[in-house]
């Protein structure tokens, strides 16, 4: 009822779902390559260094910040 209240057609959710299902891994990769500059990308991992889980493997130098 909410979608109809805002003027959306009755098949809005079905069309939305169908559109999402059409997206391929290649589509995601193409768009990521277009918009994400990996030279400016930073990954931050937060946690207890002495935790119970196995330490992650990093491809680059890790800098600990206190």
Written overview of the protein:
The longest helix is centred in the middle third of the chain and has 11 residues. 38% of the residues lie in helices and 0% in strands. By secondary structure, the protein is mainly alpha-helical. The model has no long low-confidence stretch (mean pLDDT 83). It contains three helices and no strands.
Main features:
single chain, 0% strand, 66 residues, mainly alpha, 3 helices
Question: Structural class per helix/strand content?
Answer: mainly alpha
Q: What percent strand? A: under 5%
What's the helix count? 3
What separation lies between the terminal Cα atoms? Answer: 51 Å
Element order, helices and strands?
A: HHH
What is the residue-mean pLDDT, rounded to a whole number? 83
The largest pleated sheet is described as: none
Q: Compute the CA-based radius of gyration.
A: 21 Å
